[in-house]
Amino acid sequence: MFTRLFVLFTVVSVSLGVLGRLIPLPSPALSANPDSVPVILTARSSPVASPELLDQSIERLKSITWLRTTVWQRRYDARIAYESEGKLLRGLNHTARLEGWIRTGDGEKLTQLIVSDSSVLAERLRYHARPPLFKSYVLPAREVADPQKFSPLRESFLTQRNCGGPLSFVQELRDVLTDLEISEGTHHQREVTVLKGKVNLEHARMQAKRSVRFAPERCLIYIDPGTLWPLRIEWYGKEGVILETEFRDAVIDQALTYDECVAHFTMPKAE
Length: 271
Prior knowledge:
Layout: H1 2-16, H2 28-31, E1 39-46, H3 52-62, E2 67-75, E3 82-90, E4 95-104, E5 109-117, E6 120-127, E7 133-138, H4 152-160, H5 166-176, E8 177-187, E9 191-199, H6 204-207, E10 218-223, E11 230-237, E12 240-252, H7 258-264
Antiparallel strand pairs: 1-8, 2-3, 2-12, 3-4, 4-5, 5-6, 6-7, 8-9, 9-10, 10-11, 11-12
């Protein structure tokens, strides 16, 4: 069982390009759609919205150096059902830390710790009381010398290892959504801008997800109109919501001290 979970964690986390999400087990507790969706759309909408809002959100997210946020997900599927949560910390020069867990409907749980010190990324996976598994990778060299400039190559590397944060999600939406419509709505009594689009399942990004039974027809993304922060993403299939993601409790561009960086961006010694 542990081997199955570990293999799936590795494959699915790369294919979905987001925080830990996986573990295909039948799960009555998680297979049903949510009782309610915490966003109410108003009647006003335009038949077609340009993708400029997503472009603006992407540029804003690229400009962020220091970031704290909690990434939460839930997948609804009779065979692939799970809930996951991870606390993501991003810093200067592609330092990163992700502490998270993934739980299936029958209570199986896998925990993950990923730490990048800007040179090496280390990963620790733990399943119940079994000894943890460790992996390490060398980050690719920067394209430019300035550590504060955005590096697509290093960002892609962190995204493949679940540390991309909301930027990787919005970039994917920009690529795969068509026929966008824009509306106004609320999210937990908060005014939001809502984009709705059809999913181009022929896009290479979506083709890569077929192995994990992920083939949504449409998607909604809820964006804070002031900060352009993506608050919530919902993917819909024929029977309703199949995947929901939220980026919670965001703290943007509050720099850490040197001592805090050492503490957060250093992998703890093996127990």
